[in-house]
Specification:
By secondary structure, this protein is an alpha/beta fold. The chain is 38% helix and 12% strand. Bound molecules: glutamine (GLN).
Length: 489
Amino acid sequence: MSTQLFSLTASALADLLEKGETTSEEVTRSFITRTKEVDSTVKAFLHFDEEDALAQAKASDERRQQGQSKGPLDGIPVALKDNLAVKGQPLTCASKMLGNFTSPYDGTVIGKLKEAGAVLWGRLNMDEFAMGSSTENSSRQTTANPWNPECIPGGSSGGSAASVSALETPLSLGSDTGGSIRQPAALCGVIGMKPTYGLVSRYGLVAFASSLDQIGPFARSVDDTATLLQAIVGHDPLDSTSYKTEIPDYRAEVQKPLEKSVVGLPKEYLSEGIDPEVEQAVKAAVKWYEDQGSEVVEVSLPHTEYAVGVYYIIATAEASSNLARYDGVRYGHRSEKPSNAVDLYFHSRAEGFGEEVKRRIILGTYVLSSGYYDAYYLKAQKVRTLIRQDFLKAFEKVDFLLTPTSPVPAFGKGERTANPLAMYLSDIYTISANLAGIPGVSIPGGFTQSGLPIGLQLLGKPFDEAGLLRAAKAFESGHDYHLKTPPLG
Ligand code: GLN
């Protein structure tokens, strides 16, 4: 039996653990074996420490034997994007800049997961410093899409999505600044959720654009998504943007039926440039919700056309400031034999950062520079407010919004690397939720003729993760897309 444990969801594994029909050690070994089998193709993992994972699993088994299980995540493997700080583990952000860096502390979500008894294992590949939409900006390796290894898995949390899709881990965490959880989840056929800004502490997440970054779960079922979300949310005094709010019981909430809901279809999201098969999948989902008794209404988010432009001003401005700390003195890569201090900064940064990261820093420095600040940065902040208002207005009429997650399914490796703008447009449907701070989830919504997954995005009211997950669960219960697994190994 143990060889097939890797094909089960976290909830199914938790049931078996609870009944004493397996152990965390068996479960963890099963995922490690699976990963050794398929990761030479998938290349989702940058690093994992087998002994450490098994030691955590054995500790979980001992707790359980003594009747001290810590709940539904106790003994369940959770793999982590390589921008989340785990004490004593590598933390590279897939950058040469942090090539030899080890985290000296645990981030808040990591502390919470340890408290929940999860087996934290593996560092997952990503675009360098989370900048990108294909994981091709990793300085280490290009992750493959498990459904077609010639295609990219999406990004920047490509390793987090691909590892769950390829059954290398039942759960993973990623981060989403402009779509980096939802877009790779869509392209790899799994669930990925970006929580409301402020719901999950960012302490211990390497900063890219601090007013947009959120950590969130990847899973293969809505129940599992709710379980992982439950474990990581909550106010944290170590993150000044973390929000004090009542936390619902997401795991219980998702079990409730979706009451007659009003679904909004933003007309700006089915625009030109969308792949016809993606559009078809969204229309089929609209019809499905209607057939279930939901009302579907068209809504308008009139400032959508500015979202990509606004994002690439705000995100790069914040990145240029956040990444100023990598100076060759305090962190990471240090150029050898500089002749003076300025030379040290210059060469350490020139050698340590990749091309896309440099492009962002230059763009961000430009939009913040005197004379351009008002024209670009300040104006972008004003449009950001308008984008948020568009959503809040729409939510006066609807319970949630249904959109494509990505305009296209997974594209071929190398297809967009020469054209940054084409790459940036991959995020056209996901970016607005970060600018507005609202929650979003991508769920499996079908497949193309050529067998690539298509993702549907549900966007919700601030802090209505429970409502979003209920809507996602209703769709999941009526379809079997989430049960399909890629033809690997
Ligand atoms: N693809 C977007 C970017 O390159 C979003 C990245 C993210 O969400 N981390 O900035």
